[in-house]
Fold these 2 entries.
Entry 1:
Amino acid sequence: MKKSPCVRFAPSPTGKLHLGGARTALFNWLYAKHNGGNFFLRIEDTDTERSKQEYTDQILNSLEWLGLKWSEPLIYQSKRNLIYKEEVQKLLDNGRAYRCFLTKEELQVAREKAKKEGGEFRAPKIYRDLSLDDQKGLINSGQSFTIRLKIPSKGSTFFEDKIYGKINVNNKEIDDFIIVRSNGSPTYNFTVVVDDNNMGINYVIRGEDHISNTPKQILIYSALNYPVPDFAHLPLILGSDKKRLSKRHGAASVEDFREQGYSVDALLNYIVMLGWNSGSEDELFSLEDLISKFDINKIQKKGAVYDEKKLHWVAGQHMIRKSEKNLLNEIREDDPNWQKHSKDTYIFSVLKLMKIRAKTLNELKEACAYFFSDPKDFDENAIIKRWKDKSVNKLINNFITSLEKLSNWSQKDLDESLRDTAQEMAVSAAKLIHPVRLAVSGQSHGPGLFELIELLGKMTTLRRLRKGLDIFPLKR
RNA sequence: GGCCCGUUCGUCUAGUGGUUAGGACUCCAGGUUUUCAUCCUGGCAACAGGAGUUCGAUUCUCCUACGGGCUACCA
């Protein structure tokens, strides 16, 4: 019987969670969800120099915001030194690793020499077969040492990547790499293997940048006699210059996208399309869709360039499809007091009118502003174009009079009232519509005028029209 | 430099030993609308190059070019 899949996301807290990391986490999570497995999280903080608690917090926070829940327990590598120590000892005991007394300086010299001579650098293997007594002698004399894995001098190491296919590396290409530093702390390649095994991870899904680490890690698996998991390497997310996406390319961290007001489903939807397709021509998915449709075999090998324009489009499509209730919830999640004084039913009507015109939550909030308070700024070009002179004041005045008499404040009656006024004054309806919109919203565009003022209500509309009468046309 | 990986419109991608090489975003032109957005219609635009295999290669093989990753007592 097949074991249920156990996958993990293993960020190192040396920066915020970026788009690439989010996608790796998402693919792992989707894989687990789709197959009824477990998704674990492990914080790789063995580099004490660069790891920061604030980054761990930020990563956890972003992951939570994205809704990618992980199974307990949450693992911190920094708390697992005992386990690593035990496993290193096994390697030392079974002769698959050795103490290396080379100093950093000696290594540096050897490296430079190799570079000058054009050869490739390998750590000199002079300590590889040192007797136990000699080792003790050096230790007692106070010599510090690292521990290196003994790489077989012959043969090759290969694996069947689920995305890239067979990858084969000659063992002589692999250096006897360090698994424990001279300060006693274990290194990445070693801790990953120990932890993945210990956590029961049977499917490793990670970035393509780890492809060349994989043979090294497989060598550790076999030295430790662990079962080797399956591997799938994901292509990288690139900037427009085809280089790995980073802050240089603008927004790159999940936090940035959140601040810009992108909603979670939109971001996740866009991210998943970078290097994956559903097999159909559909491009818009809910999270549930993704879980059911996700198929790791349909992942691309090529790195995908991040395109903000398309993200924006995806975001707009999600916005349109979302219910007003959900939209309000999302807005309030980041801005709990947003329009707290207004009735929900009114807010819903506003959102319904405006969501079609916005892509991000921020845009939406901004677009809705004049529904909640009288406009303070007025579009200059619109003033010049639509409210040229005093003749407009006359029109508006008549319209106000007509509105005051209106008994039924409905779209239909507003429409009729405006058209009647225009006809009486022998002008086209547009001559009246535009200045009314300007006075009422401060803008030259927006929803249909009659829906707009119907929603605004009689009092507000009249108040804003009268104010328009006061300040327009502009004096020069 | 060495090792590994990749290459279909500008971008995300579909696809096949014989297709008018399909879709989406962007852009452009129309339509709808009082305006904006939405929506609809149409358009521009790609198989990196060279050899080979083959009746026929975008598809298979090799080479080249280009791009990327790794090459740390980082992860």
Entry 2:
Amino acid sequence: MTHALPYRTHNHAHCVTDAMDEARSLCQTAGTRLTQLRAQILELIWQSHRPLGAYDILAILNDQGRKAAPPTVYRTLDFLQGMGLVHRIASLNAFVGCSQPSHNHNGCFLICEECQNVLELSADSIRQAISKETGAQGFKVRETTLEIAGTCPACINKDGGKNGAQ
Amino acid sequence: MTHALPYRTHNHAHCVTDAMDEARSLCQTAGTRLTQLRAQILELIWQSHRPLGAYDILAILNDQGRKAAPPTVYRTLDFLQGMGLVHRIASLNAFVGCSQPSHNHNGCFLICEECQNVLELSADSIRQAISKETGAQGFKVRETTLEIAGTCPACINKDGGKNGAQ
DNA sequence: GCAGGGGATGGTATAGTGTTGCGTAAATAG
DNA sequence: CTATTTACGCAACACTATACCATCCCCTGC
Ligand SMILES: [Zn+2]
Ligand SMILES: [Zn+2]
Ligand SMILES: [Zn+2]
Ligand SMILES: [Zn+2]
């Protein structure tokens, strides 16, 4: 199978099974059900470190013989988002697995436009800067969308400045 | 007419005409044409400090007797974005006028979920924090999407903590 | 004035993304 | 085993965005 590895090398089989284990555990604790469908979709998302669109997921499900229509996918994604297991990337209309589902995380995403990999940062310093600015404005934050598109280190090295990276 | 004022009080008629003047001037300098349609759409967007969806704009245009189809609106929005005169808010699929079109600006947007007003910040300190983090990751930034949803000061005062604001 | 060229606009069709509503099935509770 | 809740299948629809082609307008050179 041809999935993308993230530019930070790691044991991908482990990373997927670890994520699934953690998801099971989190749902257990929360008293929610990680059903077969939910697990299947979460695993699909983790298999690809790339963001997957809802209709990408739909296509894969149907390939795998599971009959599904859009609402099935969106409902499941809603659940997974609610549990903090996946994030939606607004600038891509796509979804990625959350790497720190136990912590609360105002995700900050580094999106490589060449290899499509997404790295989620915790980025406390950014969060602090944001909270300082919004505080100064008297603005009460509910949710922060921070998505940074560019080129990852691996791709910068790979094409030696070819695509604007230097 | 029923447009929303931003929560920072200001002379709205001025703010719109100023924005239009600056737009004309910028296009003049750049050697591009701020045609009647482009000016009309830019003004529509400025009239409302709320983000307007492309189809909102389309509806208003048609109300105003100008026949338009989606591509007309999107083309015009592309132009205005290219000139830095409007920004697209990814988390809303909507567009707002840029308050500082002359400066380069990695827009940071405070979006009030009650009154729908959007305030664009320059937020140098946030930009610095982001650039520091991405630098540490060896990530080359092309574009930053920073959209903060919450409650603006005016709405916090208005409903005295009713909606989670305190 | 007249032809040519490039940017801007009109218009149809279609692709891509997300939601509503309702009925059925499966799991949990009593 | 029945009642209740929760999840799933499915059809239809709404919203967002793009591809493609034709026409028009404006400017320039002749
Ligand atoms: Zn992995
Ligand atoms: Zn990359
Ligand atoms: Zn104004
Ligand atoms: Zn407000």
